[in-house]
Amino acid sequence: MEIESMDTEEVPYWLSVLLTEKFFNACIIHEDSRKNEKNVFCFDCCDGICPHCLPAHRSHRLLQIRRYVYHDVIRLVDAGKLMDCSLVQAYRTNSARVVFLNQRPQTRQPRGYGSGTLCVTCDRNLQESYLFCSISCKVEHIVKNGGNVWAYLLPVDEGQMTPDSVLVAESGSSTESTNVSCSTATCEVVKKKRRNGVCRSTARMTVTINRRKSTPRRSPFC
User: Fold this and answer.
1) With CB atoms 3.0 to 4.6 Å apart as the test, which of 21, 30, 197, 219 could cross-link to 52 if both were Cys?
2) ∠ CA 15-21-23 to the nearest 5 degrees?
3) What pTM does this model have?
């Protein structure tokens, strides 16, 4: 069962968006800015935002998203503020322990498959004390077995999920401020793109010239 197909009575809207958002894609509002990858989740707006969006969301509840082996993760300490993450395997990065948001695709059966503990949802190899490889695997397992996901969730109270000091360090200190509403700016950008119908990038014509080698000239014999 896909997260997108789950009813809001089974999974709260913010959790569904968090698990299906395409993080680290370019922010549509700041598409011309550098470092515009969406790496923060705003609970108040239920949307992914980039570092340049932060000034407009400072009073909102924000969660830092990280990348580990090319997949989205959050710090275990942050995840523990959202839900019961017991039995979800955590991994060690350079600075923190993290958990995966979603299951990772497997192109083939891993080495030692079936000889140890497997994720009960996607059959990924795990350490012995765990049952799930990601938060989404735990959520899917609870729903499939008729459990109540809400019973595993914690109230998302006022205040940051990820401290400001971590957000600034992860996003970089040089972020551009904005005076427009992100939702308004998004609508304007979409309207502009639909009206133009073309990308603004300029196509460059390249001409390839085939050159034949000339007949080599030999030095005269003496």
Assistant:
1) 30
2) 125
3) 0.71
